[in-house]
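Researcher: Let's walk through a ligand-bound prediction step by step. First, I give you the protein sequence. Second, the SMILES string for adenosine-5'-triphosphate. Third, you return the three-dimensional complex as structure tokens. Ready?
Model: Ready.
Researcher: Here are steps one and two:
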Amino acid sequence: MATDVHRPVTPQTAVRVEGLTRSFDGRAVIDDLRLGVRPGEFVALLGRSGCGKSTLLRILAGLDRDIQGTVLVPRRKAVAFQAPRLMPWKKVWRNVLLGLPGKPARAVAEQALDEVGLSHRPDAWPKTLSGGEAQRVSLARALVREPDLLLLDEPFGALDALTRIKAQRLVGELWQRRGCAVLLVTHDVEEAVLLADRVLVMDEGVIAYEQEIDLDRPRDIADPRFAQLRAGLLERLGVDTAAETA
Ligand SMILES: Nc1ncnc2c1ncn2[C@@H]1O[C@H](COP(=O)(O)OP(=O)(O)OP(=O)(O)O)[C@@H](O)[C@H]1O
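Model: Step three, the predicted complex:
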């Protein structure tokens, strides 16, 4: 099979994946997967633990190239993980610029920190940050790359409920302001319906189901249609919601 990895995509698509297969020890975790994401589209990816979500995201990020198939993604892309992965010996603003080519000015970091509500902490050390603040630094680090595609791997997974709600809101705002495509891996069905234009469910190595979320924004979790979409996705994930709705 032809392997054609990481060529830039056309203006009409942010991501195009065809016939993607990734195996570990002879077992295909991703098996002839097909996926398209439009520019500026917010896509959430759900699926049971171990179904290959993070593997797919790492491939799209260019961190795993041991694959078969076609993967077309924009040159400008950035990734944020569940763990913020900050260098403890570098101040916040230096962490934001970490890995950027050239010698970017501190002002570049400061602008991104401002966007994530951390303009007052450029000189802080990572160990003095709360979990939510560290995650914001991680987001700022993604933003300075001016991505056309933002890849988020459970970025809110380790946050407490209130911080999580604030972080979700922030990501929604950043997405609307920046207009980049987002692929968000999450375990949280409600989060997916709250943020995404389209929710994908991964199973058996492929995208087994997809659901457009045609609700106006900002979304209201008390809206009966919200609950309906949420229940439909939970059912697809094999979660019985009968007790909830009875
Ligand atoms: N480097 C690796 N070597 C061997 N097996 C791996 C490797 N990376 C992932 N796997 C396996 O591939 C499968 C998919 O893993 P992956 O982390 O992509 O799942 P996931 O859907 O993101 O799970 P979770 O929701 O629990 O984070 C798992 O069975 C995992 O053990």
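Researcher: And what stands out?
Model: The helical segments are 53-60, 92-97, 106-115, 131-143, 161-178, 189-195, 224-236, 242-245. The mean pLDDT is 92.
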